[in-house]
Write a structure and sequence with these properties.
The protein is of the alpha/beta class. It has 2 domains: about 130 residues, P-loop containing nucleotide triphosphate hydrolases (Rossmann fold), CATH 3.40.50.300; about 60 residues, no CATH class. It has 6 helices and 8 strands. The longest helix is centred in the C-terminal third of the chain and has 16 residues.
């Protein structure tokens, strides 16, 4: 069986400071890995490197056997603290756009209903609350079956019900054998990580 995530001797330098040095990690199917550390420690940069969106590193990264940036991008879902919801597009249009970026084919309306946005499909995202806008991005996770999820502060600006929904989605992906990297200061109590990666040197 191909290892979902294998990192060997990874070193990342930014602004003349080592964020990660000689870091190795092997994640087994179904593992939740928390990436912890203060602001500026390099959590987001590490996730971007794994996802094939940052090349300023030394060492090797493999995701489901894929090594090149383009190959890794096809295997990874990167969900950032700023999910890219467009204020001038409706909730439906935003979700259609997010799904198309990842090659996911799904009817957006049932997905929006599952995250509590039934009746808001035609509302402009710019008129929604921050939490509602986050739920548009959250809906895109419902259709994604990538073997590796890299989630960057995913619980920010989501209410308690939204946090419970997201935690349930994470558990579902783990049960399916995916690996989830969760970059956060505090993981929810009901999500116990199998491994914790602590990055230092925060700003």
């Amino acid at each position: 069986m191909t290892t979902p995530l294998n990192i060997d001797q990874l070193s990342i330098e930014r602004d003349e400071r080592w964020l990660v040095q000689n870091f190795s990690l092997q994640a087994l199917p179904g593992q939740l890995i928390q990436v912890a550390g203060p602001n500026g420690a390099g959590k987001s940069t590490l996730l971007r490197a794994i996802a094939g969106l940052y090349s300023g590193f030394e060492g090797q990264i493999q995701v489901a056997g894929a090594q090149t940036p383009a190959q890794r991008r096809a295997q990874v879902l990167l969900w950032t603290a700023l999910p890219g919801v467009k204020s001038r597009l409706s909730a439906r249009q935003n979700l259609q756009w997010l799904l198309s970026l990842r090659g996911d084919c799904a009817d957006p309306d049932p997905l929006l209903a599952q995250v509590g946005l039934r009746g808001w499909e035609d509302a402009l995202a710019g008129l929604l609350s921050t939490g509602q806008a986050r739920r548009i991005a959250l809906a895109s996770l419902l259709a994604n079956e990538s073997p590796l999820w890299c989630l960057d502060e995913p619980f920010n600006a989501i209410d308690v019900d939204g946090q419970a929904l997201l935690a349930g989605l994470i558990r579902k992906r783990l049960a399916a054998g995916a690996v989830v990297l969760l970059a956060t200061h505090h993981a929810p109590a009901d999500l116990q990580p199998d491994q914790v990666v602590n990055l230092g040197g925060g700003l």
